[in-house]
Write a structure and sequence with these properties.
three-stranded antiparallel beta sheet, 2 helices
């Protein structure tokens, strides 16, 4: 298997930002469980927001970091 990184795309009032956790999860299941809990919490606290949550493998996470360090 591998490590998985939680990445959140959070949008409110037409403005979006990316949040990520540099601390990896040991399994996809652990990451997915945290993603579901985070989605529920975000929906309660920010009911007018939209977004997506991803569990990325290490290589995908590196590509994500590279893309956003270049201002993508």
């Amino acid at each position: 298997m591998g490590e998985y990184f939680l990445v959140i795309v959070f949008c409110m009032f037409g403005e979006c930002q990316n949040l990520d956790s540099p601390k990896p999860f040991a399994s996809y299941g652990e990451c997915h469980e945290q993603a579901q809990a985070t989605a529920m919490m975000m929906n309660r606290q920010y009911p007018n927001s939209t977004g997506e949550i991803y569990c990325l493998e290490e290589e995908q996470y590196k590509l994500y970091l590279e893309a956003f360090s270049k201002g993508a």
